Amino acid sequence: MLARKSIIPEEYVLARIAAENLRKPRIRDRPRKARFIAKNGACNLAHKNIREQGRFLQDIFTTLVDLKWRHTLVIFTMSFLCSWLLFAMMWWLVAFAHGDMDPSTENTSNSTKWTPCVTCVRSFTSAFLFSIEVQVTIGFGGRMMTEECPLAITVLILQNIVGLIINAVMLGCIFMKTAQAHRRAETLIFSRQAVIAVRNGKLCFMFRVGDLRKSMIISASVRIQVVRKTTTPEGEVIPIHQVDIPVDNPIESNNIFLVAPLIICHVIDKRSPLYDISASDLALQDLELIVILEGVVETTGITTQARTSYVAEEILWGHRFVPIVTEEEGVYAVDYSKFGNTVKVAAPRCSARELDEKPSILIQTLQKSELSHQNSLRKRNSMRRNNSIRRSNSMRRTNSSLVVPKVQFITPEGSQSASET
């Protein structure tokens, strides 16, 4: 705030503002780069100028499954309606060709033995109802086919075959849409932020993953990829260059037992793309770390995949995840309210390469952390001691204020006597 003009001269105020502006460097925000993978796992990719659209019709089942629900429901409804209308037209033509629509046939006597192809089909409405009864096997009993027309028998067989195909495709499409693998991935969660801290004497990139369901993911594996824009020595620009980085796992295989939330660790060594990045360089890096969790759903046996990504702004240097698994009354309890909580820990601000070249940096960092921790404990103890002294002094003052003063009584004989009450 600016000072009042009557109290501080304007020249001093302007000089102070200029000095503050000189001390504080101005940092221009970099334009945010588009993510390749969103936090919810969706791919941020748009396909344009696809000329061979017919390839999607060659795999019609996958195309139907990939459509949105409203489009799938419209196709589901229209496929049945169109098939019913098509065969209703065929039944009407069969009846019309046989003469079942002629009103004179209704007045024929029983001696002539007139037998229609389909009984009680004398209009397009009745033909449409009979088409529905044939395809969905309702059969109310009012309309039925006779042995008079072989063409009608052929239409009946054809409609049954077409109806079974439509039922299989549409019901299978609806089932696959409801049991898609990414539906199970909705309950596989990742920490909102990743951290870089020291573990076992090495700088490590870590994040937390968990499963909200009790049904497990069988043979779950985690892969990490770094996506960044690179330029080859020949001058070729690769906008999306993917590099796999190893995941530290004490088990020989890459599978994890995801029964409780786990902290996945990547040791930043010579093979890591983060080997030359320090804490100050991290904010300037144009990279994205993609995490892919794959496994088989225990209940359905379908392979599922959950994805997320971390950009430079979402990586905390010198932090560690807090423990969330505790033992309560013989049961391991997981507190998901602290799933993404982190605490600051001692970590060198240099890169992993500098840490390998000068291991003393880690020792100095830990010593400074220990000294600061001891100083904080001393300050806390001194504050507690001062507070206890203040409390004791205040209690003494309170007790002294409660002491009753001495009172002198004068007897009738003129003698004085002192008493305390």
TrEMBL record:
Biased composition (Low complexity): 384-398
Domain Inward rectifier potassium channel C-terminal residues, every copy: 188-358
Catalytic reaction equation(s): K(+)(in) = K(+)(out)
Location(s), subcellular: Membrane
TM spans (from-to): 73-94, 151-175
Entry's family note: Belongs to the inward rectifier-type potassium channel (TC 1.A.2.1) family.
Gene Ontology cellular component list: monoatomic ion channel complex; plasma membrane
Protein name: KCNJ8 protein
Site positions (Role in the control of polyamine-mediated channel gating and in the blocking by intracellular magnesium): N167
Potassium channel inwardly rectifying transmembrane domain: residues covered: 37-180
PANTHER family the record matches: ATP-SENSITIVE INWARD RECTIFIER POTASSIUM CHANNEL 8 (PTHR11767:SF11), INWARD RECTIFIER POTASSIUM CHANNEL (PTHR11767)
Gene Ontology MF: a single term: ATP-activated inward rectifier potassium channel activity
Main location: membrane
Disordered: annotated segments: 372-398
Species this protein is from: Dicaeum eximium
